Amino acid sequence: METQVKVDLTNFRLETRKWLEENCPISMREPITDAKQLYWGGSKGKFSSEDQEIWFERMLQKKWIVPYWEEKYGGGGLNPEQNNILNQEMSRLGCRKPHINFGISMLGPALLKFASDEQKLHYLNQICKGEVRWVQGYSEPNAGSDLANLQTKADDNGDHFLVTGSKVWTSYGDKGDYIFCLVRTDTSSKHTGISFLLIDMNSEGVTTRPIKLISGKSPFTETFFDSVKVPKKNLVGTLNDGWTIAKYLLTHERQMIGGIGETDKKKSLSEIAIDVLGKNEGILSDTSIRSKISNLEMNEKIFDLTIQRALDEHKAGNNSGAASSFFKYYGTELSIQKEELRLEVNGFNSTEWTSEESRNGLEARYFCRSKGHSIEGGTHEVQLNIIAKRILGLPTK
Amino acid sequence: MALVINEEQQMLKSSTKEFLDLKSPLSLVREMRDNNYNQFSSELWTEMVEMGWTALTIPEKYNGLNFGYVGLGQVLEEMGRKLTVSPIISTVLTSTSLISLSKNEVLKNMLFQEIMNGNKLCTLAHEEGSHHSPNIEISIVSKKDDVLVLNGKKRFVIDGSISDYFIVSANHESEKNVDLILVDSKSEGISFNNKVHMDSRIYSDISFDNVKIEKDNFLSSNGDGFEILEKTLDIARIGLAAEMLGNVQQAFEMTMQYLKEREQFGVKIGSFQSLQHRSALMFGEIELCKSIVLKALQAIDSDDEKLPELASLAKAKLGQVSKLVTNEAVQMHGGIGVTDDADIGFFLKRTRVTQRTFGDSNFHLDRVAKINKY
Prior knowledge:
The structure holds 2 protein chains of 2 kinds.
Chain A: H1 2-23, H2 50-61, H3 80-93, H4 102-114, H5 117-129, E1 134-137, E2 153-157, E3 160-171, E4 178-184, E5 194-200, E6 206-211, E7 220-231, E8 235-236, H6 242-258, H7 269-277, E9 279-280, E10 283-284, H8 287-315, H9 324-346, H10 362-370, H11 380-391
Parallel strand pairs in A: 1-4
Antiparallel strand pairs in A: 2-3, 3-7, 4-5, 5-8, 6-7, 9-10
Helix pairs in contact in A: 1-3, 4-5, 4-6, 6-9, 7-9, 8-9, 9-10, 9-11
Chain B: H1 7-23, H2 26-34, H3 42-50, H4 69-82, H5 88-101, H6 105-117, E1 122-125, E2 140-144, E3 147-158, E4 165-172, E5 178-184, E6 190-196, E7 202-213, H7 225-261, E8 263-264, E9 267-268, H8 273-301, H9 307-333, H10 344-354, H11 361-371
Parallel strand pairs in B: 1-4, 2-4
Antiparallel strand pairs in B: 2-3, 3-7, 4-5, 6-7, 8-9
């Protein structure tokens, strides 16, 4: 029995390898160097190259946009082992993800757990086709770290809700088709007066305004709701129980942000440092930078092992103890430290902002962007509060 | 290999904990220190031998248990929690590993038997300077009137004052090899300077003055001495990191307990955010430590080619984190933390020694950089 499973998985691996080699365009196997090289889909989505379109279409046909969701939802129906193999084979060839969408990484898991069958069939199938670009509406001007203080209200108005208020830090809000929102449906209670609502961004009364960051880029918007009509069927889960969904979804967001910073960089920091600073008697000539790099690389390697251990513990049915808060904190902290160290390694070159040589200040802007990593998705301090209270059980008074 | 311990290893860990709770409470460390720095409880050692701990890593071929280093790591971790004083590091972790790598079958049979029976204690005499180094500068084996003699000075020999045998690393005068030689601690020409260190344990500086050695007592052969030594050191680094993991977990847990009990300004001090954040950071660092220690222990058992790097990552990380956690533990205990009455100081003092043993974080970060060619 067991051997048969192994044989099947081996066959699956060989077939997958062959299919990827035949179908993934060569240019789609290059590391990502620019955000444009990701395809986010939705009504405003544009392919940045012919190969990107070909790759998306082929993966769509194969139902591998979300390979691990059930087939009835438009997924590929792969079991965890098969999905693992697909991931391994894709990274072996360096294949890019054909489609990125918060609908896959964040909303999807929440819908699978909390939505009605009808909602699941409708929205998950859309996501698997890349038709709808989802964005997230959580934070508000007065509800950042204190998220449950949110005030955007959804009033019961017969067959629909009437939504009024505003959200901030909506990632790519100007490009979204739909927004999943936390709204206040009961003002008499803080945590148990929040509901989880899906809102069409083309509805009358929805507007967005970009927020320009210190990196000079605007990946976030403010999003305004002025008496927006939202059908009742767009409520996910129970009325006033949205906080449960929010918490569940935040753990997915933390894991996602925790993984930031591993993309695109072809050369390791030590290799760059050798190019820039040179060697002396076989070792990097600046020994102070050398030990900083060694220390950072140690922590990166051990952090990767810790992610692996958490997954293995989970598979073995144990609770690893390390919570998503820790992964969010440490993953972003490492990426922040790395950007800082990259500036040290590259010296004057690192602060160039508009030159051609610096590819329009790629490093300087990455550095500035990294400063947001310890804030978005719950600040460093909020993560540490969560660990102290929920894991260590330290007293509140 | 999945980064989890299996059921058998978990059972060993639990039984070790039960045993040590009973036989080696923290109070024993204090008792032994106050008894003129006693280094050895023969009663405790006999029971450890009966539990099979000396046979854990010895291959079946030599009647050992062949349980592997992940298993031994669990024992060391639990001992780290209790700061148990025993010859496990010197005799089992270091010497047994080195002997396993030797091709001298006669010595192997003899030594394994004696170690498993608990009859003899054995230690590596290797360091020569103030800092750890795998290199040998002073000790030398040479021929004098057709007899082989050992001359040199070794420092910081763990359990040197209680061991029956030393495994001495020395350069061979004519062959430019590193030799590893078994020397009876009572041989003529050996003199000791036993020194109590901060952790209340005795480390010996040992001089070898024309000590006669037999051809049969070489554990190295055909120039494999340095290779055996390096691998032994890597295993020892990882095993010690496992002990350190026990040290930091215990110190951390004792501190969290204290934060939940101690009141100031009318509230539990654990409610202060400055302490909560530092505690949360320590929690995360300890999680990282668990991952690298387990990975490195597994690498010994699977004969992973990355063993040197993993050993250095483990020792470097545990060196840093044990410093962080023991410092914070004492600080968070406040005034009581710097009194001898409190146990927390024992952890600070033990880790200051283990940080340096088999190489500190600076040494290992440098080594990681070299392994990665920068």
